[in-house]
Specification:
By secondary structure, this protein is α+β, with helices and mostly antiparallel strands. The chain is built from 13 helices and 17 strands. The chain folds into 3 domains: about 1-270 and about 355-365, no CATH class; about 285-340, no CATH class; about 370-450, SOR catalytic domain (Immunoglobulin-like, Sandwich), CATH 2.60.40.730. The radius of gyration is 25 Å and the shape is elongated.
Length: about 450
């Protein structure tokens, strides 16, 4: 680990970072969430037979601004589609995760402090080189939109509403080409939403420590960013990002970010880990040495090992699972705390699988809702847990073209949603409900069934 830390000192000088690195860490997190979710099965159900590996196309002429943004990314990272705008489904969700930081001013909306309810707060400390005025030419605002609000904000080009709009079109659009384009758009939006959630896995982003995003990294006066997030990119890259430790289930979208019971990702990370500028304050050693905490959690043990801390190398504060939380040392009768690369690498090994767990759960939440379809003399569509909304039933022919054969208003508590005469021709019946669930959360619920006609 010491050798690795030495390598990192050199490598960290290479470039600036404003978040989990978009094209490595964020793309890897989104891919792991997709692989662990129901997305593959849902794509196959809806007629995208290759599932996560189904080629989906956004013709460049249809979305020139999007394609231009994609070409700002590095082709070597796999987020740029081919000249026809074609990419596998899995690559589109990774591309969405990479695009969430474009334009760069949107990155300030990927913070949330559950203690204050605020997002990014412009640091007031002097860090030199006018970096409080601009990073890479981008002006830093005084405040950012809190991350849980940003994912539903109408100014966010990849918000949750945009996901549902595109997802609905991917079910109901007439032609395979239109559905392919819409599904790619839905996956881009989903990847961007996952990115915003995933950023809350970095302790500084949930502890009001925006200054940690502007730390000197060593590659010159303008090379500033989060050392913690840079290390994640260097150590795990994209393909090395771990899969989910579990899959998180929540009733409300916001609960993945923060919840009253403290079970959101921001809540968990904020109370479990220190960040560089929220460590316990330096304290003079006396008969009762009690360092002042910047935040109540993580709490310190009743007694610190001051004898071990007096050694030249100091000692380590660990959590109940043995993960390093900080180093502490006594020098010149002063107890101080710090974070080093090896300590933060231990934290990354715990945090990244947890972030993937929340992202997997959020993706499943966006895709939740299945309609049951039965066909005999009639097409019968049923489901549970739906609120107010609209049901559309479609039939697909042997060219892949879909047409509506019925639209129905749905009221809360209905289980048999609609009955319509079975079509005499066609290869597949598809149904889509759009509305809200019984918790009032937006929902697109879908179902499909191969159709046998005589």
């Amino acid at each position: 680990m010491k050798r690795l830390a030495a390598v990192l000192v050199i490598a960290l000088a290479a470039s600036t970072a404003g978040a989990w690195e978009a094209q490595t860490t964020q793309a890897g997190l989104a891919e792991q969430a997709a692989l662990g979710s129901r997305l593959h099965k849902r794509l196959v159900t809806l007629g995208f037979t290759g599932g996560l590996f189904e080629p989906l196309t956004i013709p460049p002429a249809d979305a020139p601004a999007l394609i231009a943004d994609l070409h700002l990314l590095s082709p070597s990272h796999g987020a740029v589609p081919d000249g026809r705008g074609r990419h596998p489904a899995l690559a589109w969700i990774a591309a969405g995760a990479a695009l969430a930081d474009i334009p760069a001013r949107h990155a300030v909306n990927h913070f949330f402090d559950p203690t204050t309810g605020r997002g990014f707060e412009r640091p007031d400390r002097s860090i030199g080189n006018d970096l409080l005025d601009a990073i890479d030419g981008v002006s830093l605002p005084a405040h950012g939109v809190p991350a849980p609000d940003w994912v539903v904000d109408p100014h966010n080009p990849f918000n949750v509403s945009g996901f549902f709009d595109e997802y609905a079109k991917a079910v109901t659009a007439a032609t395979p080409g239109e559905r392919s384009r819409a599904m790619a758009g839905a996956l881009i939006a989903a990847g961007a939403v996952l990115h915003v959630l995933g950023d809350l896995g970095a302790p500084a982003r949930v502890r009001g420590d925006a200054a940690a995003q502007l730390d000197q990294l060593g590659g010159g006066p303008d090379d500033r960013g989060s050392r913690f997030e840079r290390m994640a990119a260097l150590v795990y890259g994209r393909l090395g990002v771990p899969g989910p430790s579990r899959v998180i289930t929540r009733v409300h979208l916001r609960d993945y970010f923060t919840s009253r019971d403290g079970a959101g990702l921001a809540d968990e990370i904020a109370r479990t880990y220190f960040s560089p500028h929220t460590l316990p304050e330096p304290t003079r050693v006396g008969d009762e040495t009690t360092p002042r905490l910047v935040r109540p959690q993580p709490a310190l043990p009743a007694k610190l090992n001051l004898m071990a801390a007096s050694r030249d190398t100091g000692t380590t504060l660990r959590d109940a699972d043995g993960t390093c939380l900080a180093r502490y040392k006594v020098a010149s009768s002063t107890l101080s705390f710090s974070l080093d690369d090896d300590c933060e690498l231990e934290q990354l090994a715990k945090i990244l699988p947890e972030v993937t767990a929340y992202e997997t759960g959020l993706l499943d939440f966006l895709l939740r809702g299945e309609l049951a379809i039965a066909v005999s003399q009639q097409v019968v569509v049923s489901a549970k847990g739906l609120g107010d909304g609209t049901l559309q039933i479609l039939v697909e022919d042997d060219r892949g073209v879909r047409r509506s054969i019925g639209t129905f208003a749905i009221k809360p508590g209905m289980e048999t949603l609609a009955k319509v005469a079975a079509p005499t021709t066609g290869t597949r019946v598809v149904a889509m409900y759009r509305g809200v669930d019984l918790a009032g959360e937006p929902l697109v619920s879908v179902g499909a069934l191969p159709l046998t006609t005589h």
